[in-house]
Specification:
Strand content: 15-25%
Radius of gyration: 18 Å
Distance between the termini: 32 Å
CATH architecture of the largest domain: 3-Layer(aba) Sandwich
Oligomer: single chain
Helix content: 25-40%
Shape: globular
Order of helices and strands: EHEHEHEHEHEEEEHEHHEE
CATH superfamily of the largest domain: Response regulator
Structural class: alpha/beta
Largest sheet: 5 strands, parallel
Number of helices: 8
Strand order of the largest sheet: 2-1-3-4-5
Low-confidence stretches: none
């Protein structure tokens, strides 16, 4: 069964599920619920929802293990919603396939915005080779980026970094994930080189590199490319 407008909520807190049900249904989504990890796995396989909201603190199993199991076959967005908010918890979730992470208590408006972004850039969708972000356009096929219609002078590494972030627009990518994808496993842990290249890239794509609006820092975790 494939319900394209259904969001699956896997959370053991009844009050949270009720709040999300009211909020999401009033914004046009159908809701499926699960109070345990086991129920969540069954519901995900049964309904193939458009997006999953997953709590890490489940009563029967570690939510991170549920995330890993779902990610073995599920390619659509997963947003973590949890009271756990340490950098380690957030990084582990993102590195194991979560698209985004919000901590409780949360603002419903922010959650809705994150959901809209995640659905717009569904990881299971085909990537458009020509992407536009305001004044910035990225031609993935020809490895060209333009700002105000002028071609930017980017090194191959700078373009690879920009392309990775743009393809995952709206999603938080951890330092280690970016280093592995752009530089390779040998560079995992070398966050300084990443900071240098992010600074260089901001000088070329941002109107004000000191106040970036496209390439956003998620402190202690990684970066998010914002449309």
């Amino acid at each position: 069964m494939n319900l394209p407008d259904t969001i699956l909520i896997i959370d053991d807190e009844v009050q949270i599920r009720r709040l999300l049900e009211i909020t999401l249904s009033s914004n046009g989504f159908r809701i499926s619920e699960a109070g345990t990890g086991k129920e969540g796995l069954i519901a995900a396989a049964t309904y193939n929802p458009a997006l999953i909201i997953l709590d890490l603190g489940l009563p029967d199993t570690n939510g991170l293990e549920i995330l890993k199991k779902i990610r073995e076959w599920y390619q659509k967005p997963i947003i973590i919603l949890s009271v756990k908010n340490s950098e380690e918890d957030i990084i582990n979730a993102l590195d194991n396939g979560a698209n985004d992470f919000l901590t409780k208590p949360f603002r419903t408006g922010e959650l809705l915005a994150r959901i809209r972004v995640a659905l717009r850039y569904n990881t299971g969708s085909e990537i458009d080779p020509n992407m536009t972000f305001g004044k910035l356009t990225i031609d993935l096929a020809n490895h060209i980026a333009r700002k105000n219609e002028e071609i930017l002078k980017l090194t191959s590494t700078e373009f690879s970094l920009l392309a990775l972030l743009a393809r995952n627009s709206g999603r938080v990518l951890t330092h280690q994930n970016i280093l592995k994808e752009v530089w390779g496993f040998g560079y995992v842990g070398q966050t300084q080189i990443l900071r240098v290249f992010v600074a260089q890239l901001r000088k070329k794509i941002e109107d004000d590199p000191a106040k970036p609006k496209l390439l956003i820092t998620e402190s202690g975790i990684g970066y998010r490319f914002h449309e």
